[in-house]
Specification:
five-stranded antiparallel beta sheet; Rossmann fold; 8 helices; six-stranded mixed beta sheet; single chain; binds magnesium ion; alpha+beta; binds adenosine-5'-diphosphate; OB fold (Dihydrolipoamide Acetyltransferase, E2P)
Amino acid sequence: MTSSNDPIIRFKNVVKRYPGAPTPALDVAEFTINRGEFFSILGPSGSGKTTALRLIAGFEQADGGQIFVGDQDVTDVPPYRRDINTVFQSYALFPHMSLRDNVTYPLRMAGVDKGSIRKRVDEALEMVAMEKMADRFPHQVSGGQRQRVALARAFVGRPKVLLLDEPLSALDLNLRQQMQHVLVDLQRKIGITFVYVTHDQGEALSMSNRVAIVSGGKIQQLDTPNAIYYEPNSRFVAQFIGKSNLVQAHVAGAASADVDPVATVCGERFALPAAKQSGPINLAVRFESLAVTKPDEPAPHQVRLMGKVSDVLFLGHTCEVKVKCQDQEFIAFAPARRDAILSHGQDVCVSFNPNDCAVFND
Ligand SMILES: Nc1ncnc2c1ncn2[C@@H]1O[C@H](COP(=O)(O)OP(=O)(O)O)[C@@H](O)[C@H]1O
Ligand SMILES: [Mg+2]
C-alpha cells in the first residue's frame, strides 16, 4: 500500500442539496484523498456516499464549493474529461461482446493504437486472473468473474482515479472476501488511487489506507482503520464500527491536575485518566474488551462488576454473552466451546480495563 501526502482529490466547502430535501445530501468543509491511496467512504444507507462519488466523477454538480483533481478545479469540467472511472455495483458488461472485447472497448473508444491495445488488454485480464476465459461471453462466467472483468475494463485506460460504488454487494460472502484480496492486490500493482464506497465496515477496515465515516451527509471521522477502531471520536463512530457497550458512568475530580479523575460504574470506583470533565459520562467498551468469568475464577481485568447472565447467543466462532449488573446490561464476546460453560441466570464477574474504554461526554 503506497500512499503519499500528494493530494489527488480535494473538496472545499462542497454542498450538494437535492430539490425538496430539507438537509443537504452532502456537506463537506475540507477533505483530501492522496495519490495512490486506497481510500474508503463508509456509512449507512442514505448517508451521502454515492453522492460524494458522483460529485467526484462529475455526474452531479455541487450547489456550492469546489472540487479539485490534482491542481485543477474540476467543478465545471464534464465527466469524460476528468480522467476518472467508475465501477458500479451492477457490473453492466456488454452482454453481446466477449470478455476480451468488453475490456478492449474503452481503449478503442479512446483511439489507442491497435498495436498496444492487445498488450494492455492481455495485461489487464491477467491482473484480474481472467485471461483464460477471455473469449467467453458475460453470461458464461460467474458473478464474481464478471465483476473482475468490469474492474479490468475500468482500469485498462489507466485513469488517475478509480471510483468503486459498493462493487461487491451483489456477491455472496465468500466471494466478497476473495474479492477484497483481489482488490487490495490489484490496487497495489497498478498504483491507481481507489475511492471505495461501502456500508460494510469489514470491507472498509480491511482494505483501506484511510477511511472517512459519513452520516447525514457529513464526515464524522477520517482516519486510518486502526485509529477509527481504537480511537472513535464520537458515540456514533464507536457504535457504528465494531460492537460496543455504551456504559453509564459518573466522574468525580476531573478538574484537578494532581490526581486522576475517578469514575464509578455500578458502584465500582476506578481511576479514569481519559475523563475530561466531572459528572455523568458514557464509556464505550467493545464486546471483545469485556471478560466474563465465574465468581471463583481470577478476573483478568482491573474493573470488576458482579452480575447475572441474562442471555447467551451462540455464533459459532464465539458467543455473545449478555450480563446484567445492577441496572446496566453488558454484552461480551466469550470464546465458544463445545461444552458451553455459561448459562442463563448464572452469577458471573464482568471485567474490563479502563484504558480500553472510549470516553464521551454526551
Ligand atoms: N437524485 C436524487 N434526488 C433526490 N434525492 C436524492 C437523489 N439521490 C440521492 N438522494 C438522497 O440523498 C441522500 C444521500 O443519498 P446517497 O448519496 O445515494 O446515499 P448512500 O449512497 O450513502 O446510500 C439520501 O437521503 C437520498 O435519498
Ligand atoms: Mg449509494
